């Protein structure tokens, strides 16, 4: 085991117990990992620079080298992770979506059940299989309609409260009034498959009655061919709202040519009032927003709340990125160093600052009391504190966003109608059981 380095600002030390497949971290000192090199797969491209800076900062405290490599938004974490294992070259720290960790953790993941952070958020938000905690919940994220309150009020010439939009009819009325007052196209929609299928369509599953159990059963019923989406309340309500957003979309003339950065700029600068996205979008919005502009995030409001009265007051969200530690391609010293990096993020002021100030995230851990530092994260933090988040399943099929996303792109472009979209989505799910 490496010797300990006393660091005044640090409050975590890796214990010497590595035997038996478990590692634990205690407080007060960092451990000397001089000569140990580890790697991290980052699948949040918007925080690439911040994670690289954090790796360097932690490395200066411990003597270790942490190399962060990032895949872009067009890359699939599942594909990348599978390829790295096929090449026997898995990174030490693997950030993936919940379903990615669920797929690989039992075979390759380190048991992190004994970590200090497991007691104040890790066990609640991390991936646990058969009582074993396999992942570090990197952040809480939620998705909905991001709004520019300042632009809405300036366009209407009056104060506006997002809580006044209680259903889709209210939203339709507001959008019409914005157009009447000079905002030609008040909505921005992304064309990316991950946004369409990974973020919008998944609301159909998660909002059936708002419980995780029903969402998971609904997906099993889809696989079994027992769901008729065209007679499903949530599907039709969400698609009706999506069609409303399509009507006012700033890229309506060529929706598959929409540019993500342009959407961020348009929202920040008040060219549009609403953008379906999540709090992670602050990384791009912050490049354009003025100091006196007020933005926030609200639910995707719907007309028919049958089966789930909370759809117009809750966001869909949870710990959307999970980090597991590999045991197949990385030795015990590398695993220990990886644990120390995660502990540093949770249990030191410097690490907390990385998550909150530098990466603009909402941490999953109750011991971190600092408030979120940007308006979108603050909105999500408020919904989380109020218990107004619909949970999300951890076992979405790894190809869901690409395959269903491609179908939804056809729908967005007007190449199929709602019934055709439903039929193709049902066929996708049914094909999973073949």
Summarize the structure.
The protein has about 425 residues and is of the alpha/beta class.
Description of the molecule:
- There is one protein chain.
- With 434 residues, the protein is of the alpha/beta class.
- Helix content is 41%, strand content 15%.
- It is built from 16 helices and 15 strands.
- The chain has helices at 48-62, 77-86, 98-108, 122-125, 149-156, 168-180, 193-206, 212-223, 233-247, 260-269, 282-285, 332-347, 349-358, 375-385, 400-412, 418-431, and strands spanning 4-5, 13-14, 25-26, 30-31, 37-42, 65-70, 93-96, 128-129, 132-133, 136-148, 187-188, 274-278, 295-298, 315-325, 389-390.
- The strands form four sheets. Strands 5, 6, 7, 10, 11, 12, 13, 14 and 15 form a nine-stranded mixed β-sheet that branches.
- Strand 8 (128-129) and strand 9 form a beta hairpin.
- Helix 7 packs across helix 15 (400-412), helix 12 packs across helix 13 (349-358) and helix 15 (400-412) runs antiparallel to helix 16 (418-431).
- The longest helix has 16 residues, at 332-347.
- The protein starts with a strand and ends with a helix.
């Amino acid at each position: 085991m490496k010797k300990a380095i006393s660091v005044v600002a640090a409050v975590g030390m890796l214990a010497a117990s590595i035997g038996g497949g478990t590692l634990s971290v205690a407080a007060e000192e960092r451990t000397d990992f001089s000569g140990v090199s580890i790697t991290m797969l980052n699948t949040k491209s918007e925080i690439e620079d911040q994670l690289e800076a954090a790796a360097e900062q932690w490395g200066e405290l411990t003597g270790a080298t942490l190399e962060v490599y990032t895949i872009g938004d067009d890359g699939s974490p599942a594909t990348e992770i599978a390829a790295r294992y096929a090449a026997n070259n898995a990174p030490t720290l693997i950030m993936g979506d919940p379903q990615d960790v669920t797929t690989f953790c039992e075979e390759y993941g380190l048991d992190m059940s004994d970590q200090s952070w497991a007691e104040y958020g890790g066990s609640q938000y991390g991936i646990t299989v058969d009582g074993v905690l396999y992942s570090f919940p990197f952040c809480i994220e939620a998705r909905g309609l991001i709004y520019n309150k300042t632009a809405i009020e300036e366009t209407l010439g009056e104060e506006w409260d997002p809580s006044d939009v209680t259903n889709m009819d209210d939203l339709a009325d507001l959008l019409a009034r914005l157009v009447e007052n000079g905002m030609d196209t008040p909505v921005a929609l992304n064309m990316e498959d991950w946004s369409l299928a990974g973020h919008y369509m998944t609301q159909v599953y998660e909002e059936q009655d708002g419980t995780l159990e029903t969402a998971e059963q609904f997906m099993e019923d889809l696989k079994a061919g027992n769901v008729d989406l065209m007679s499903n309340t949530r599907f039709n309500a969400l698609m009706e709202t999506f069609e409303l957003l399509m009507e006012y979309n700033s890229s309506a003339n060529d929706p598959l040519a929409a540019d993500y950065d342009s959407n961020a700029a348009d929202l920040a600068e008040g060219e549009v009032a609403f953008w379906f996205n999540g709090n992670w979008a602050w990384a791009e919005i912050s490049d354009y927003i003025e100091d006196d502009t007020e933005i926030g995030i609200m639910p995707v409001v719907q007309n028919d709340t049958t089966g789930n009265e909370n759809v117009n007051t809750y966001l869909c969200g949870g710990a959307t990125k999970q980090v597991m530690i590999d045991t197949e391609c990385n030795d015990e010293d590398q695993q220990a160093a990886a644990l120390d990096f995660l502990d540093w993020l949770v249990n030191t002021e410097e690490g907390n600052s990385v998550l909150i100030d530098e990466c603009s995230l909402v941490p999953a851990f109750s011991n971190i009391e600092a408030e979120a530092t940007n308006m979108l994260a603050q909105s999500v933090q408020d919904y989380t504190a109020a218990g107004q988040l619909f949970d999300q399943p951890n076992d979405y099929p790894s190809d869901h966003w690409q395959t269903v996303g491609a179908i939804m792109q056809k729908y967005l472009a007007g190449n199929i109608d709602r019934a055709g979209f439903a039929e193709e989505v049902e066929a996708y799910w049914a094909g999973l059981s073949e």
